[in-house]
Amino acid sequence: MDYQRLSKEMSYALRHAPHEYELEVDEYGWVEIEQLISSLQEQPVWRHVSEQDFHIMVVSPPTS
């Protein structure tokens, strides 16, 4: 799993294009993780992404 690429995809979806990913952002700017995962899984490259991948991504050191 390319966690840097996943991080960039997730950031784009949440910050810039929630409408493109059909994400429902609540009044505080939050999205249900299940909804984010489901939306990403619609793309072939992310079809196997899981909540565990998000946890790994968050604790992984950034790469240059």
From TrEMBL:
Keyword Iron included in the entry's annotation: no
Full protein name: RNA 2'-phosphotransferase, Tpt1 / KptA family
Record keyword Transferase present: yes
InterPro entries for the chain: Ptrans_KptA/Tpt1, RNA_2'-PTrans_N
Domain of life (superkingdom): Bacteria
GO MF annotations, alphabetized: transferase activity
Keywords, ordered alphabetically: Transferase
Transmembrane residue ranges: none
